[in-house]
Write a structure and sequence with these properties.
- The chain is of the alpha/beta class and 233 residues long.
- The chain folds into 2 domains: 165 residues, SPOUT methyltransferase, trefoil knot domain (Alpha/beta knot), CATH 3.40.1280.10; 57 residues, Orthogonal Bundle (Trp Operon Repressor, Chain A).
- The chain is 32% helix and 18% strand.
- The chain has a 5-stranded parallel sheet with strand order 2-1-6-5-7.
- β8 and β9 form a beta hairpin.
- It is elongated, with a radius of gyration of 22 Å.
- The protein binds ligand JCH.
- Ligand JCH binds next to β5.
- Homodimer.
- It is found in: Cytoplasm.
Length: 233
């Protein structure tokens, strides 16, 4: 899978080359390319923002650098796949595990990170000529720009690419893959600061352990995330 990220703060993404996704990149499973939007400016100050038409607070990202960046990055080999172009936005559809699963099947993703008050709306219309455009929110809170949302999305998507996570069973068992929260985990020592590991986990009774874990999952989901049991996800 190829992933391009465009940002005015490219060094934000240095962390994505570490650990799991770093290995996926060195083995060629993931081709992750980080770009500086200012590379597509042509003025002396490498300007990416301007005042909003109609007035109001703050600045808006100019369309021209975005247009040039997207034209260049979307131009695959002739007959190549049209990219999916994702803009994080507090006004987008909410990102879920199901979104990550859907996007992990794409051959080419382009992420555009806005800053200031956002990007000139015409950029989204223009991007729709190059591929499928998705405005996606990480959740119902306001960030200062798209970078942190893209870090989260690339990590969630990247670990679903076949071969990135060593044991595919660890993908199935965890939170949200089965619509329930995870069961609690324990390791050695069996007693720590007078706190015992639940004895059933030391029993060797695999059927009883599986039943206990499922019960724990349902109970924590009921307490912490009743919305998940209501069938909303
Ligand atoms: C972003 C901003 C509009 C602040 C600029 C680009 C995504 N889930 C999520 N929360 N916030 C974002 C996000 C994504 C891209 C950008 N900003 C700052 C934009 C605002 O209007 C209310 C406020 C925030």
């Amino acid at each position: 899978m190829r992933i391009d990220v465009v940002s005015i703060f490219p060094s934000y993404f240095d962390g994505l080359t570490l650990s799991l996704l770093g290995k996926a990149q060195s083995t060629g499973i993931l081709d992750l390319r980080i770009h500086d939007l200012r590379d597509w400016t042509h003025d002396r100050h490498r300007t990416v923002d301007d005042t909003p038409y109609g007035g109001g607070a703050g600045m808006v990202m100019k369309p021209e650098p975005w247009g040039l960046a997207l034209d260049q990055l979307a131009a695959g080999a002739d007959g190549g796949p049209r990219p999916t172009i994702i803009f994080p936005s507090p006004a987008g559809e909410v990102f879920h595990q199901s979104t990550a699963r859907e996007l992990a099947d794409r051959e080419h993703l382009i992420f555009g990170c806005g800053r200031y008050e956002g990007i000139d709306e015409r950029v989204f219309e223009e991007a729709a000529e190059l591929g499928e455009v998705r405005l996606i929110s990480l959740g119902d809170y306001v960030l200062n720009g798209g970078e942190v949302a893209v870090m989260a999305m690339v990590e969630a998507i990247g670990r679903l690419i076949p071969g990135v996570v060593g044991n595919p069973e660890s993908l199935v068992e965890e939170s949200h893959e089965d619509g329930l929260l995870e069961y609690p985990s324990y390791t050695k020592p069996s007693v720590w600061r007078d706190r015992e590991v639940p004895p059933i986990l030391l029993s060797g009774n695999h059927g009883a352990i599986a039943a206990w874990r499922r019960e724990q999952q349902v109970e924590r989901t009921r307490r912490r995330r009743p919305d998940l049991l209501a069938g909303e996800d």
